Amino acid sequence: MNNLNRKILPISCICSIYKRTILEEFIIAIDSLLLQEYIPSEIIVIVDGQIKLNVKSFLDKIIQVEKIFKVYFIKENRGLGFALNYGLLKCNNNIVARFDTDDINLANRLKFQFDILKNNPEISIVGSDVIEFNNFDNNIFKKNMKNNQKLITGFMRRNQLNHPSIMYRKKDILDVGSYKDIKLFEDYELWLRCIKKEFGIYNINKALVAMRRSSYLSNRIGLKYSIYELRFLIETIKQNTIKKIYIPFFILRIVVRLLPKNFSFLIRLFDSSRLVSKEDFHLDDYIFQLTNNKNSFYKKYNNLINEIT
């Protein structure tokens, strides 16, 4: 990758992988960061517990020949919050970009966000609009994110940032205590603490990440998810990061999650930002260009993808 004459930005990209990480998706995610005009100076990979054999084989190979990667292992699975908290301390740059290993970073994502932070020292966290897709149909949703005062007040009802699209100043995140072990709500709880500290937050109203989502509703209903959200609510009450007037709203949402599946459409009422997109993002073409690029990791390590895991 070093012979591509890319422009290197002082950014650390960080991800966490675990036993369900799929190598093909992971490699495409990496290519979507590195087959760009502007690339990070390092990619921090946190291995959270056991992983598939072909993923381990891939990591073993790139550690030896690709200096941009720094891989750290956690013996037992501890969850995303713990892994990112650990990984942030390994980042050598103050500017850190999150990415998920099953998502796709769109053209010039890092450059757009880096320029916002570089030119606006009062901003600590910058996110973006995203598009959502899955492997089963052609439906594409676009999440149009709020900005300015609407963004801050919106946090009192729902998360206003797409975690895989985030770039932030490491120092500021560490100053508020970094991620806590609050499963499924690690990022939301962190942003609320940042707001309490009056850190600047901004969303670029352009889709910079394509998020792979199997089902919008299936992961957000049921007893287990409701318990996680209740734990999150209790923590925000302790931290005084949610205004008391909004507590009944969260309780109502938790109750809705416990309803039978045929009522799950009600959850969409809490998320007006997600709309079926009429724009043509040519996502299939973009993925094809990544995977067929002669310099891609996808081509270089394709033999590992179909290995027995």
Write the layout of secondary structure elements.
Blueprint: E1 7-17, H1 23-34, E2 38-48, H2 53-65, E3 69-74, H3 80-88, E4 95-98, E5 104-105, H4 109-119, E6 123-133, E7 141-143, H5 148-154, E8 167-169, H6 170-175, H7 186-196, E9 200-212, H8 223-239, H9 247-257, E10 274-276, H10 283-292, H11 297-300, H12 302-305
Outline of the structure:
This protein has helices at 23-34, 53-65, 80-88, 109-119, 148-154, 170-175, 186-196, 223-239, 247-257, 283-292, 297-300, 302-305; strands spanning 7-17, 38-48, 69-74, 95-98, 104-105, 123-133, 141-143, 167-169, 200-212, 274-276. It is of the alpha/beta class.
How would you describe this structure to a colleague?
The structure is a single chain. The chain is an alpha/beta fold. Helices cover 37% and strands 22% of the residues. The chain has twelve helices and ten strands. Strands 1, 2, 3, 4, 5, 6, 7, 8, 9 and 10 form a ten-stranded mixed beta sheet that branches. Helix 1 links the parallel strand 1 (7-17) and strand 2. It is globular and about 55 Å long. It starts with 6 loop residues before the first strand and ends with a helix. The relative contact order is 0.16.
